[in-house]
Specification:
elongated; alpha+beta; 26% helix; 28% strand; disordered C terminus
Length: 106
């Protein structure tokens, strides 16, 4: 699991904990570029659930392969009532529902 996961768990706990011990937020979201399996796996291991794919969410200049383009992202979230949360399984999206870019990925 590692130190980074432990640190993220502490941060999420502080963010969702009621004030004055925490920030008192009800919901925490994170967006991950499709294909970034390491970051998505970290979020799932913390109990974040994948909610949706956001098409053309972020413009990255000199992105993949030196090209500038809009990139799709997966959105993950967890709420105060769910925290601490059990890990979620990796998504299994049928090939027919995937974008041309994600269809090309293994």
């Amino acid at each position: 699991t590692g130190l980074f996961r432990e640190g993220m768990a502490l941060v999420v706990g502080i963010v969702l904990r009621q004030a004055p011990q925490g920030m008192g937020l009800h919901r925490l979201e994170a967006n991950v570029r499709i294909g970034n399996d390491t970051s998505a796996g970290l979020l799932r291991s913390l109990g974040f659930r994948r909610e949706r794919t956001i098409r053309r969410m972020l413009w990255l200049a000199d992105g993949l392969g030196g090209r500038s383009a809009w990139f799709d992202h997966d959105s993950f979230a967890v709420t105060r009532e769910e925290w601490p949360a059990a890990p979620h399984a990796a998504r299994t999206t049928p090939a027919s529902a995937r974008t041309p870019v994600t269809r090309a990925m293994p």
